[in-house]
């Protein structure tokens, strides 16, 4: 190309610098600054910021609610991974392997909740769980299981498990598509060879489909874990606000409560650092656990 | 090929869960639409059935009593400004990262991509005070900027992969003809990336239209509420006023634009999201 070095660098600067400045101001600076805030006690007014060293971290380790919030987050992670992966895998196999005429219809329907607003999903499900009007309790009454009815989201024991179903409901579609993409890339000859050898459908699934879509399975699990740890507080905030009696607080919703409703910004930032550290450790650990020789036939 | 009875049974056995799950997805959404036409009395008497008569009273009430019109307007502004700003910032960077060779390009790309995996909740506390300093707190334009930057890594990622498919010879011959790199970027590369730009913009727009938590933190006065916040507000109030019909009407208003976009761009949206996840 006919251009001098200087022109090239000017063009690069034009392309990269404004974007990078904005990115630094609104993403990088807040992250590092959050780390810095975690060493202060601060109620938001500028003259009251007080350096307290590791005091917030000491508080973090002695706060009774913190272990509960971590447990709740990982409870959601594990139940969501299991629920979504089993259902998405089943649907993906059914829609690709068995020649179902209306497969595109299912694909379009199942994916739709993935692009619904969490507010809409949360409120819809609050209704489904509504003690007097809701679908769950009316359904249980209709089939004669009246003793099972309960105020699902108001029950300390059942509120957290009740959040799993809406998350699975809203999450399946994306992973179904990811897995379908993987399955449709598997060459037909693999299955033909297996059939000639007399392998049953189950054997084909375990020995061909599953190993060959392992990369997609791994990505899906990682993605569910990351999005849950980084975003589970949104549905919690909409549906229960962390209640009843902190029974559904996750790390993020507790951060929100500490920082933005009780104005403990320093402590809130400390919780944020914990979220960051835990999610990084979890992702690294998972990548190690899920590593597996790449299979090629 | 002839099908055995056993095979047919397996087939219908597999269809059943598919049909049940379709009902589980569709019925609540369908029922939300029905509820928006019911009076409160009817919602109590017959929560899950078909309304006796279709009334638009809930929509009128949402519009006038809960000033949903201004929330819709705010959501529109945030969506449009956020999506445009995101594109303006992402297109040049994506092009430079994909096509111009320079030291550190790989590092910069990695930096943007890894930002997709970092939990931003820690950053929201300082961002709150930063926006206050810039007088952008409780300001829908401030929120638009925050939205645009939050989707920047994803947008850059999708655009670079689309730009990678444009043949280099087009740019080279344009450069031969004396076109400046700026001209090549805006007159050749950008138009050829239209498909990628559309995909990513539709997804960003849906994201911004739906977003709730950042709006909750960075907006405060009711006049600035986006639709998601207004709905959350009506929902909290409905616990006491039992104005469920109005709540359903506002949910319908929030979801209809998404349904319309989805029915037109279903393939694009699905493709964009899976690609984002594959890299993320």
Automatic annotation (TrEMBL), chain A:
InterPro entries: ABC_transporter_permease (IPR051393), MetI-like (IPR000515), MetI-like_sf (IPR035906). Pfam families: BPD_transp_1. Keywords: Cell membrane, Membrane, Transmembrane, Transmembrane helix, Transport. The keyword Mitochondrion does not apply. Residues 70-286 form the ABC transmembrane type-1 domain. It is found in: Cell membrane. One of its GO terms (biological process) is transmembrane transport. This is N-acetylglucosamine transport system permease protein. It comes from Tenuibacillus multivorans.
TrEMBL record, chain B:
The keyword Coiled coil does not apply. Residues 72-265 form the ABC transmembrane type-1 domain. PROSITE patterns: ABC_TM1 (PS50928). InterPro entries: MetI-like, MetI-like_sf. Keywords: Cell membrane, Membrane, Transmembrane, Transmembrane helix, Transport. The keyword Transmembrane helix applies. Signal peptide: none annotated. This is N-acetylglucosamine transport system permease protein. GO terms for biological process: transmembrane transport. It is found in: Cell membrane. It is a multi-pass membrane protein. Belongs to the binding-protein-dependent transport system permease family. It comes from the Bacteria. It comes from Tenuibacillus multivorans.
